[in-house]
Amino acid sequence: MKQQEIHVPLCDSCSLETGSIFKYLTPDEVDALNFEKDFRHYKRGDILYQEGNRISGFFCIHRGIIKVFKTGFDGKEQIIRFAKKGDIIAYRSVLSNELACTSAKVIEDCQVCFIPSEILISFIKTNPSYAIELLKLACHELGEANSFITDIAQKTVRERLAEVLLFLVNDFGLDNDSYLNISLTREELANIVGTATESVIRLLSEFKSDKLVELNGRKIKILNTKGLEKISNVFN
Predict the structure, then answer these.
(1) Sign of the alpha-carbon torsion through 98, 100, 120, 23
(2) Sequence-distant (≥ 6) Cβ neighbours of residue 121 within 8 angstroms
(3) N or C: which end of the chain has fewer CB within 10 A?
(4) Which residue has better confidence, 202 or 22?
(5) Hey, where are the domains in the chain?
(6) CATH fold of 11-152, please?
């Protein structure tokens, strides 16, 4: 059987397409990145790294979707974010030289570039523009984490589920039939919202009855964005 040719994406063209942080690198730095990175394929369910482990680099997503999560004492996942094309993950553990503070699992077959820690550190030391943009990215993620903590403390589960659906629309968009371009299990939705799976199932059924969404297995069709905005209080 003929072996399938592996096409390794070039960082300069990929960063321009996605607007990733690597667009702030110099041509020489991009060349170094292309030479040092390791292009990898992962299937749904694969683990990229686990919380508490020492990691020797970080990942840039070229294709697919990865969930980044923490595991509670009871073994339940709390999803922190979803990483998609152009996003980088695990870089904060590299910067802090600490054990991984999260785990990463593939939920849609993906292609990623693994970049050694030394490359990231060298770019920070030699490229101030890149260092500032990386700092901005870390601050943005910290701001999102603070907002999530506030929502958990102050919003009802119904409000949080509506807000999560809106965030998924914003991050992944809708297809031509208004279905979310990301397919999640009810358990995964519950792990984002921070509630029991049964509560998400019940609330989605209520949203369906209220003609806010339409359900087709794991696929969710958004029927009334304004209605979800009103429930979520996200713009209040």
Answers:
(1) negative
(2) 94, 95
(3) N
(4) 202
(5) 11-152, 155-232
(6) Jelly Rolls (2.60.120)
Distance of CA 181 to the CA centre of its chain: 13
Give the chain's length. Answer: 236
Gap between the Cα atoms of 210 and 228, Å rounded: 10
Is 1.10.10.10 the CATH number for 155-232? yes
Q: How far is CA 176 from the centre of its chain?
A: 23
Sign of CA dihedral 4, 19, 151, 96: positive
SS3 per-residue string spanning the chain: CCCCCCCCCCHHHHHHHHCCHHHHCCHHHHHHHHHHCEEEEECCCCEEECCCCCCCEEEEEEEEEEEEEEECCCCCEEEEEEECCCCEECHHHHHHCCCCCCEEEEEEEEEEEEEEHHHHHHHHHHCHHHHHHHHHHHHHHHHHHHHHHHHHHHCCHHHHHHHHHHHHHHHHCECCCCEECCCCCHHHHHHHHCCCHHHHHHHHHHHHHCCCEEEECCEEEECCHHHHHHHHCCCC
- pTM of the predicted protein model: 0.84
CA 182 to chain centre: 11
Angle among Cα 100, 142, 39 to the nearest 5 degrees reads 45
Q: Can you tell me the distance from the alpha carbon of 31 to that of 28, in angstroms, rounded to the nearest whole number? A: 5
